[in-house]
């Protein structure tokens, strides 16, 4: 499987290392607006420079590169794994539109553990809610993360929103001078230190609390997930896939 890697920062380098180690992948080039070290493969500043045709693009870069990626992918019928965070609503709409022509996986968290958490939530969230439990999401990340709440926290909310009709996300209660409403699901963000990523869903009922928690102990879990997504796209021609739909 011929791969173009977009982004050569910390995560991109980890992805490149894993791609080089696996026989089923052929890393044919790395794309980045700047390089702080030389890559063994062909190096490009954007995809317009690439003459070869890749089977898949794995993107760990920045939302600003979306148009460049989609233009190349649609022209060459290349599949795309978007593991970049911070896309705007307009950009997500572009991704959805492009998925009518090519196969795309888009997720803010590619780890297997989060995939399993979403499966658990689909099974239990509505039953907790129907039995009077309040639901809150808490996410923690390192102090360099720009967006808040995390894309993964939003994903976890969306999974429960699909199962429970009429829920409302609440991101900040400081301006609310009223008691909590049943249909609210709180989403809170903490930033500090070097936390790779923690996501906790709390179901608070009468005199008891149940918590589901995922903790990433290294960034390698996201690398493995991105490679697994690339392989899973091999037999997909078109469509937009997420952790909820690809596996």
TrEMBL record:
Domain of life (superkingdom): Bacteria
Location of this chain's protein in the cell: Cytoplasm
Active-site feature positions: 141, 145
Primary localization: cytoplasm
Enzyme class: oxidoreductase
Record carries keyword NAD: yes
Domain (Dihydrodipicolinate reductase N-terminal): residue spans on this chain: 1-109
SUPFAM superfamilies in alphabetical order: Glyceraldehyde-3-phosphate dehydrogenase-like, C-terminal domain (SSF55347), NAD(P)-binding Rossmann-fold domains (SSF51735)
Cellular component terms per the entry's GO annotation: cytosol
Residues where (S)-2,3,4,5-tetrahydrodipicolinate binds: 142, 151-152
One GO MF term: NAD binding
Binding site for NADP(+): 38
Pathway where this protein functions: Amino-acid biosynthesis; L-lysine biosynthesis via DAP pathway; (S)-tetrahydrodipicolinate from L-aspartate: step 4/4
Subunit-structure text: Homotetramer.
Protein role: Catalyzes the conversion of 4-hydroxy-tetrahydrodipicolinate (HTPA) to tetrahydrodipicolinate.
Assigned protein family: Belongs to the DapB family.
HAMAP family, sorted: DapB
Name used for this protein in its record: 4-hydroxy-tetrahydrodipicolinate reductase
Organism name: Faecalibacillus faecis
Annotated gene: dapB
């Amino acid at each position: 499987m011929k791969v173009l890697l977009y982004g050569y920062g910390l995560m991109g380098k980890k992805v490149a290392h894993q791609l080089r180690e696996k026989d089923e992948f052929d890393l044919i080039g790395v794309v980045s607006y700047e390089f702080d070290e030389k890559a063994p493969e062909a190096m490009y500043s954007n995809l317009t420079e690439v003459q070869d045709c890749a089977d898949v693009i794995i993107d760990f870069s920045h939302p600003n590169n979306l148009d460049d990626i989609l233009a190349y992918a649609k022209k060459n019928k290349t599949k795309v794994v978007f593991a970049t965070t911070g896309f705007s609503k307009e950009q997500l709409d572009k991704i959805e539109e492009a998925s009518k022509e090519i196969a795309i996986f888009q997720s803010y968290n590619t780890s297997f553990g989060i995939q399993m958490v979403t499966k658990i939530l689909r099974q239990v969230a509505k039953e907790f809610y129907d039995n009077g439990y309040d639901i809150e999401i808490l996410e923690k990340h390192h102090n360099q993360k720009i967006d808040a709440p995390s894309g993964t926290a939003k994903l976890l909310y969306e999974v429960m929103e699909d199962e429970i009709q009429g829920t409302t996300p609440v991101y900040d209660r400081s301006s609310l001078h009223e008691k909590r409403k049943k249909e609210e699901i709180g989403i809170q963000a903490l930033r500090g230190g070097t936390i790779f990523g923690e996501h906790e869903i709390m179901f608070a009922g009468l005199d008891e609390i149940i918590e589901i928690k995922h903790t990433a102990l290294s960034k390698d879990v996201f690398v493995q997930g991105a490679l697994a997504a690339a392989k899973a796209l091999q037999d997909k021609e078109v469509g937009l896939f997420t952790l909820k739909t690809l596996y």
